[in-house]
Design goal:
about 400 residues; alpha/beta; five-stranded mixed sheet; 10 helices
Length: about 400
């Protein structure tokens, strides 16, 4: 990839195409960096592949906010994230106990509130939702037991941050308790599979009880009742520590590195909607977001919030990512909470993919960027592209 040298030009025009909604031409997008160079500061070299940022920024939102004049950014942001009931999305002030955890452990923390017009008869039904994105904690060559324990330790402070901020429903990323080794087609990674009431559920139950919080835990499931068949499963843990139910991934990709039917087949749970203490929720695991009728069926079954826990890489889907969750929310009149893991996961043994690439040891970069969309086409800014993160949103289910 060619590195960009700011001294080459004094004026740049950037075409920003985002979310399939608007195309905007932005002149002098990197004005601040240019001024630094002209004032004798170091000439910064940009290379997305080095730190997986966007021109040195956590996200496109931060890049634009820091480099556009305020009134220019306001207009661009209106086009990229929409207006919520005619207003900009409001940031939420979080307690010090939450912000200190973010500062100490270095994870991205953002919080927003969706507006809704107050009704005359119905009382508001405000729910606080949390999404966690994270990278793995140890190299994939470490002992499997150590890898899982390290991931548990890594997410503990993020779970505490969610709980201390009053999150009602929390969702983790797809197969959060392991590397996303599904691309490798190496059978030994099935050792991470566990029963529905296994180690990960027991770990999260304590947080559900401690914080009166519903937790969605996407795991690699070992079905002990049916010959130890492996499924890609989301376990819905109730706020009393009970298991409300499960949903098994019902659309399996066979694209590039992600030939996931080597590990599990399409799920057998249909399109369940779970009644929780805080609202009716569904879990549309990863690849299901590409299937419109899949999204429709969750809505027809009564979902008010659809969670979309994912593990997807930039080369395959990053251009689609900001579009699909937002479109599903608009088309089906429910909230969509979309979560993706972060980082590059490198494996010892190389593997090939279905697209003819030479053998390689990683599937690409998991780009994070988790966000929430509302039925009126508004959405939150995304979490970091490169850091662990917690996104908190308040939403009134009367909006659905």
């Amino acid at each position: 990839m060619r590195k960009w040298n700011y001294k080459e030009k004094t004026k740049h025009e950037f075409i920003i195409i985002n979310k399939g909604i608007q195309t905007a031409t932005l002149t002098n997008c990197l004005k601040m960096e240019l001024e630094k160079s002209q004032n004798g500061g170091e000439n910064e070299l940009l290379n997305l592949s080095e730190d997986n940022s966007i021109c040195g920024y956590d996200s496109l939102h931060h890049l634009l906010k820091d480099n556009l004049k305020p009134h220019h950014f306001q207009e661009v942001n209106r086009l990229l994230t929409g207006l919520n009931c005619g207003k900009e999305l409001e940031a939420i002030a979080l307690p010090e106990s939450t912000t200190s955890l973010s500062a100490t452990h270095g994870f991205d923390l953002q919080a927003y509130s969706f507006h809704v017009d107050k009704e005359v008869i119905r009382e508001p039904r405000v729910v606080r939702v949390g999404l966690i994105q994270n990278s793995i904690a140890l190299p994939t060559t470490a002992h499997f037991v150590d890898q899982k324990k390290a991931i548990f330790e890594k997410v503990k402070p993020i779970l505490d941050a969610a709980g201390s901020s009053g999150v009602n429903i929390l969702c983790l990323q797809e197969a959060w308790m392991m590397p996303f080794a599904i691309c490798t087609r190496d059978k030994r990674w099935c050792e991470f599979a566990e029963p529905v009431d296994g180690e990960s559920t027991k770990f999260l139950r304590s947080y559900a009880l401690k914080y009166n919080m519903v937790i969605i835990s996407p795991i690699l499931e070992r079905d002990m009742n049916h010959g130890e068949v492996i499924w890609n499963t989301a376990v819905v843990i109730g706020n009393h520590g009970n298991i409300i139910g499960i949903h098994r991934k019902n659309h399996i990709p066979r694209v590039g590195d992600f030939n996931e039917s080597m590990y599990y087949m399409e799920g057998n749970t249909g399109h369940p909607v779970f009644e929780t203490a805080f609202g009716k929720i569904a879990v549309n695991i990863c690849y299901g977001r590409h299937h419109p009728l899949n999204c429709v069926t969750f809505g027809l079954n009564g979902a008010e919030i659809v969670f979309n826990p994912c593990a997807t890489v930039g080369e395959l889907t990053e251009a689609m990512w900001p579009i699909e969750g937002r479109y599903a929310a608009i088309a089906n009149s429910y909230f969509v909470a979309t979560i993706n893991r972060v980082g590059t996961e490198t494996f010892l043994n190389s593997f090939t993919s279905g697209d003819g690439k030479a053998a390689h040891v990683d599937p690409g970069y998991f780009y994070g960027s988790s966000y929430v969309s509302a039925p009126d086409a508004s959405c939150t800014p995304s979490l970091s592209r490169k850091r662990d993160g917690l996104l908190i949103t308040d939403m009134d289910l009367n909006f659905v």
